[in-house]
Write a structure and sequence with these properties.
- The chain contains twelve helices and 13 strands.
- Helix content is about 40%, strand content about 15%.
- With about 400 residues, the chain is α/β, with parallel strands linked by helices.
- The protein is globular and about 65 Å long.
Length: about 400
């Protein structure tokens, strides 16, 4: 899983590289002492923990996070820092699995110098760790966690991505209004995939459409031709892919091999440069959705987009923007209310003009998700994402 100028993430190399770059505020995770540390040390750096997939099947998302967070940390430390101190980001690799996310949560909660946490990538991993963060009064900032129950795990769970309820409804509406109501759904057989599929089919039915075929596949599956042939035979106008970029790209390629001519739409998890690189010409025309589009960024986002392009020679996707935003939002909270665990949580709850490059100034609603957040449709055209005009 590589992009131009990059190489696959190796966990040992990542952590060694981070440990060698303390000036940038990026350090390897160190074992914490078990027991609830309620506040960070008052001298030394302010430290945020990051729990995420820096190896394994979702490592590309972790690489994108790290790239964006590096820019955020360097900008913060090049200015006034956080509460007059330097910021360090401590990375722990979980491969975004519940089994690995739980001990990472225990490490972070047990380390009193960690005053907030970002991650994990997948909602099941985050939700498995939520009780630990809640007991430790450590903000769990799940900026990619779309499961509708994630922020119900406690008062310390926050998310800046839209919930699956909102995401599925918007994707269904986009597909229905532009391509037709006779649809098929192919979904990744995970907790995330099942919930999204159910919400999508329900939203489609409410619009007056019909799911004429619903098929699932395993995470490790790579030959989808029999599933795609069954979908083709149902003669849908639209095929919706509830997939990650890896399987989404393969599905698009193999759809051609079985002469599936329906319009392809995909969940926002396919909004990645890797989706285009892996899928090639087969993904041209695919429509997906996003909360952030670098082709038409908010004024607040323009410096980040320019910095990301200059440094990495590619556009930032929504995962990069949300990762950058997450670090900046937590730094803002620590500056505004104090760089302690409970103070950060309280400031996020009470904030009314929280700065964001994704949404502009916002506040968290009672469910600790962004109030009045919006999405936009985008489409792959000639090897890049462009605004979708319908």
């Amino acid at each position: 899983m590589t992009t131009p100028g990059s190489r696959p993430i190796d966990r040992r190399r990542v952590l060694q590289g981070l440990a060698a770059a303390p000036a940038a505020g990026l350090v390897a995770a160190r074992p914490g002492l078990f027991g609830a540390g309620r506040a960070g040390a008052q001298d030394g750096p302010v430290r945020f923990g990051v729990s995420g997939p820096f190896s394994g099947n979702s490592a590309e998302y972790g690489r994108i996070w790290q790239q964006a967070m590096t820019i955020a940390v360097e900008e913060i430390n090049g200015g006034d820092g956080v509460a007059g101190r330097q910021l360090e980001v401590v990375y722990e690799d979980t491969q975004s699995t519940p089994q690995q996310a739980v001990p990472v949560a225990q490490k972070f909660v047990g380390d009193p110098t960690i005053v907030a946490e970002l991650g994990d990538f997948a909602s099941p991993a985050s939700m498995a760790a939520s009780p630990i963060y809640e007991r430790g009064k450590l903000v769990q900032f799940g900026f990619t966690n779309s499961h509708p129950d994630f922020t119900k795990g406690g008062e310390y769970m926050f998310s800046t991505t839209l919930s699956q309820v909102q995401d599925a409804a918007f994707l269904a509406q986009t597909a229905f209004e532009n391509f037709g109501g006779k649809q098929a759904v192919l979904y990744r057989n995970t907790d995330w995939g099942k919930v999204t599929q159910e919400l999508y089919v329900a939203a489609l039915a409410e619009l007056g459409g019909e799911a004429v075929a619903v098929e699932n596949y395993l995470e490790a599956e790579r030959d989808f031709r029999s599933l795609l042939a069954a979908v083709r035979d149902a003669q849908p106008e639209v095929v919706t892919l509830i997939a990650y970029y890896t399987d989404g790209a393969l599905l698009a390629q193999q759809a051609e091999s079985v002469d599936l001519a329906a319009q392809l739409v995909a969940s926002g998890s396919c909004n990645s440069p890797q989706f285009i690189e892996l899928g090639g010409e087969s993904v041209n025309g695919v429509v997906t959705t996003t909360v952030f589009f670098p082709g038409a960024p908010r004024p607040e986002a323009e410096p980040f987009v320019a910095a990301y392009r200059e440094r990495y020679d590619q556009d930032p996707d929504s995962f990069a923007a949300l990762a950058y935003d997450g670090v900046k939002i937590l730094a803002w909270a620590a500056n505004e209310g104090g760089a302690e665990r409970e103070a950060i949580q309280r400031t996020l709850v009470e904030g009314t003009e929280i700065p964001s490059i994704v949404y502009g100034p916002f506040r968290f609603a009672e469910d600790r998700r962004v109030e009045n957040a919006e999405m936009v449709p985008i489409q792959v055209e000639e090897g890049q994402f462009v605004a979708f005009g319908g």
